[in-house]
Design goal:
The chain has a single domain (3-99), classed as Beta-grasp domain (Ubiquitin-like (UB roll), Roll). The protein has three helices and five strands, in the order E-E-H-E-H-H-E-E. The protein has helices spanning 24-30, 54-57, 65-71; strands spanning 3-7, 13-17, 49-52, 81-83, 96-99. A five-stranded mixed β-sheet has the order 2-1-5-3-4. One of its GO terms (biological process) is P450-containing electron transport chain.
């Protein structure tokens, strides 16, 4: 199983194993990582915003226009920002590192 590394808001690293086909957001929820995902992955909010380690960013599929529109609503946007619900784990992403942003916006409240 591929490994995924979350770096949380206090710089603590959490290395978890993730089944192929699961999203970064779903992996966070399974492993009690504080990544919200208010819309449950329906691409209707930006609360699963993560910042991908620059070494991994170009290995991801290009974001869709819908994802880019949602990212425009995210706090703390960075050049390597993506929505965790849109990053699907593959064997090629074994070792992927993502950082949780300092703030999030819950569009569902």
């Amino acid at each position: 199983m591929p490994k995924l590394v979350f770096i949380d808001r206090d710089d603590t690293r959490h290395e978890v194993e993730v089944p192929v086909g699961l999203s970064v957001m779903e992996a966070a929820h399974r492993h009690d990582i504080d990544l919200e995902g208010a819309c449950e992955g329906s691409l209707a909010c930006s609360t699963c915003h993560v910042i991908v380690d620059p070494a991994w960013f170009d290995k991801l599929k290009e974001p869709t226009e819908d994802e880019e529109d949602m990212l425009d609503l995210a706090f703390g946007l960075a050049r390597t920002s993506r929505l965790g619900c849109q990053i699907i784990m593959t064997d090629e992403l074994d070792g992927l590192v993502v950082r949780l942003p300092a703030e999030t916006r819950n569009a569902m409240l």
